[in-house]
Specification:
The chain has helices spanning about 40-50, 145-150, and strands at about 10, 15, 60-65, 70-80, 85-90, 95-100, 105-110, 120, 150-160, 160-165, 195-200, 205-210, 220-225, 240. About 5% of the residues lie in helices and about 30% in strands. The strands form two sheets. The protein has a twelve-stranded mixed sheet.
């Protein structure tokens, strides 16, 4: 399968790319590196990855995602002071989301039915659950690292890195990197063995999670930087209440 088989884009806290990983005529899956990691090694590696994301609840950070070089996102989050801003770019379309406490604002030039291009104030209770805009633990990471870690099927520690495979069929939908089944609504068998490589810094924090192009899925990456730096978010003036037409379109592939 080639990149041409990918689906459209969607918007939540971050813009998401609906990536088809189902079979496509004539294309052969990219071979997945074999792994000899046993259950014990996988458990140890997963625990290391989970520990590497504790900073999300403890300090401010920047997170960047890149999906196939088509969708890029940059977010600055300060959970302690309840401030966040995200900017998303995809083929000339841009969305910006600002979060201050419980207030959520969105502005976009995307072609969304019934939605204008002015700043809008969102009702967080109407946002689809997987794309919740909240500073609550487990819902405060625009990169969606927890969903990736939960989908790890095999892994091994290699110094400051963790390498292994993901079972894409186990990935919950949400902010960050997503994959979607191809025609027929099913994933190919190879989707259960999607390779990945994660890197931790000297303090044990997760700083990158890279999924190479393989098995019909495009390359995707997630990276964390700027730990502890101040995050300033300006409340937009003149924001209008988001129209009802916006909410069904949040987090949905095009």
């Amino acid at each position: 399968m080639t990149r041409g088989a990918m689906g459209g884009i969607a918007v939540g806290v971050l813009l998401l790319l609906g990536c088809s990983v189902g079979a496509s005529g004539g294309d052969e899956p990219v071979p997945v590196p074999a792994t000899s990691a046993d259950a014990g090694a996988t458990l140890e590696a997963v625990d290391l990855l989970r520990s590497g994301t504790k900073f999300i609840d403890e300090t401010s950070f920047r997170v960047d995602t890149d999906i196939a070089g088509i969708v890029t996102t940059r977010s600055y989050v300060d959970t302690l002071n309840k401030r966040a801003v995200s900017t998303v770019s995809a083929s000339g379309q841009v969305a910006e989301i600002r979060v201050i406490g419980d207030d959520v604002y969105l502005k976009t030039n995307m072609d969304l039915s019934g939605v204008g291009e002015e700043w809008m104030s969102l009702d967080p209770t109407r946002v689809p659950a997987g794309f919740a805009l909240s500073f609550a633990p487990g819902k405060n990471d625009p990169g969606g690292s927890a969903r990736l870690v939960d989908a790890v099927s095999t892994a091994r520690i290699e110094g400051s890195q963790v390498a292994g495979t993901l079972d894409v069929t186990r990935m919950r939908v949400g902010n960050g990197i997503n994959f979607r089944p191809g025609p027929g609504g099913t994933f190919p068998d190879a989707a259960r063995n999607q390779p990945f490589r994660a890197t931790l810094d000297a303090e044990g924090r997760l700083v990158s999670f890279v999924i190479p192009e393989a098995n019909g899925a495009p390359a995707a990456s997630l990276g964390y930087t700027d730990f502890g730096k101040a995050v300033e978010v300006v409340r937009p003036r003149g924001a209008v209440a988001a129209p009802a037409a916006l909410y069904p379109q949040l987090g949905l592939g095009g």
